[in-house]
Design goal:
Layout: H1 9-18, E1 35-40, E2 43-47, E3 52-57, E4 60-64, H2 72-82, E5 86-91, H3 97-100, H4 103-109, E6 116-120, H5 122-132, H6 134-145, E7 161-163, E8 166-171, E9 174-181, E10 188-193, E11 198-202, H7 222-233, E12 239-242, E13 248-249, H8 251-277, H9 282-288, H10 307-319, H11 334-345, H12 348-360, H13 364-377, H14 379-396, H15 400-408
Parallel strand pairs: 4-5, 5-6, 6-7, 11-12
Antiparallel strand pairs: 1-2, 2-3, 3-4, 8-9, 9-10, 10-11, 12-13
This protein binds zinc ion.
Residues 50, 96, 98-99, 203, 243-244 line the site of zinc ion.
Length: 412
């Protein structure tokens, strides 16, 4: 029996898939109202920013992810209401803070001697890396999610057990298989339970174009992400628990979603590599590739990441950071370029008039290239125009990451 009759994530999924209703699932607000949906007496989906899945046997529980720390008390209350008194295992699908941030509070709330945290071995390296980049990651989160200040934890709950390729956990009469794959991260795990007829994707599926291209994060893996999703589709399960967004039910639907998403990622990698091998620069490739219409699906929209960022990601993975444009190899400072633009226009007023004429023709991107440079020379003089350009660009973007970066450059 469903303990909360009003919340049914499988219905929300159906609405999303029919195109009837769609909101961005990768928004932090998702974590402010935690819901628990009982799939069976022994399995629950917990909606959060970074969803949680819970197995239950008697009063003992196993969790897949913990969600972010800010909503942990809600998660703890939902689990207790559902009848969980003790937790035997917490499995991390990967080490991102929206999936593991709540671990400390949850472990403390269900304290016992036998609780074990399990993850892929590279989660340890990730946490070590995070400790070196707390300031940087705080700024990225502030920019990406439009937060008032930098936010990033300084402590992480490390795993007790790590594995490299596959691992199995016997939780009473359920066998839970952990499989490593590279996609959003190099430390990712997806899970399969035959008895529950369910797959737990972590962030391999998040109800938007896979965020394999984030401009401010360590390398992500477009092609191997596609391969993992293809492998997942072969389990032919009844339930798909995504890392973000609502639970999906139905074998045919799940197979279709996984195969389409896989094909989309494999298509991107294959086509970028083809153009790289033909000698194109990164910028040429960005202009030459657009997604085929078959990938025009509600769950492949660039609402979080952006299609063009995935191109950059493939380029960086296989080709390094040189864009292929010689002036970008050892560029002058923005200040020096800005001065050259102003001289070329015959003064800052002339250049302002020229930029206004560009905006009249809706050439906001062209104007943004110039405004970045000249704002380094005359920040006060060009501030209003810069704000206008980046407000316009932010409004035009469907992608949360692109919006975040443009908005961050609006100087109020
Ligand atoms: Zn996530």
């Amino acid at each position: 029996m469903n303990i909360d009759n009003t919340y049914d994530p499988t219905n929300i999924s159906k609405k999303y898939l029919s195109g009837e209703k769609f909101t961005n699932q990768v928004s932090i607000e998702q974590g402010f109202s935690v819901e628990l949906y009982e799939v069976s007496e022994k399995l629950a989906f917990i909606k959060n920013f970074g969803n949680v899945a819970a197995f239950k046997e008697g009063s003992k529980g196993l969790l897949i992810d913990t969600g972010m720390g800010v909503s942990s008390n809600q998660v703890i209350n939902k689990l207790k209401e559902w009848g969980v008194d003790e937790i035997e295992y917490i499995i991390y699908t990967h080490g991102h803070v929206d999936h593991v941030g709540g671990a400390d509070l949850i472990v403390n709330a269900f304290k016992n001697d036998f609780l074990k945290i399990v993850s892929h071995e590279k989660v340890v390296e990730r946490f070590n890396r995070y400790k070196k980049t707390i300031g940087y990651n705080g700024i990225i989160n502030q920019r990406q999610f439009g937060l008032p200040a930098p936010v990033f934890p300084s402590e992480f709950k490390y795993p007790d057990i790590t594995y490299s390729d596959t691992y199995e956990i016997n939780f009473h009469d359920s066998v839970i298989k952990l499989i490593h794959g590279k996609g959003e991260t190099d430390d990712a795990t997806y899970l399969y339970s035959e008895k529950e007829d369910a797959i737990f994707t972590g962030d391999f599926f998040i109800w938007s174009l896979p965020n394999a291209g984030n401009p401010s994060k360590a390398q992500r893996y477009v092609g191997s992400w596609g391969e993992v999703l293809r492998d997942m589709s072969q389990y032919n399960v009844e339930y798909l628990f995504p890392g973000h967004g609502p639970l999906i039910q139905g074998k045919k639907t799940i197979r279709e979603i996984l195969v389409n998403t896989s094909n989309c990622l494999l298509w991107i990698e294959e086509n970028v590599l083809k153009l790289m091998n033909e000698g194109n620069s990164l910028r040429d490739i960005q202009k030459k590739i657009s997604l085929p219409v078959e990938f025009n699906q509600p769950y492949l929209v660039s609402s979080y990441d952006d299609f063009t960022f995935l191109i950059n990601s493939v380029w960086r993975q296989y080709g390094g950071w040189y864009s292929g444009i010689p002036s970008e190899l050892k560029p002058p400072s923005l200040f020096e370029i800005g001065n050259a633009y102003i001289d070329m226009a015959g003064g800052k007023e002339n250049l302002l008039l020229f930029l206004e004429s560009l905006l009249a023709e809706k050439k906001y991107k062209e104007a943004s290239v110039i405004i970045d440079a000249i704002s380094a020379v005359e920040p006060d003089f060009y501030r209003d125009l810069k704000n206008l350009i980046y407000s316009f660009l932010a409004d035009q973007e469907p992608s949360l990451m692109a919006k975040g970066i443009y908005n961050f450059n609006i100087d109020t």
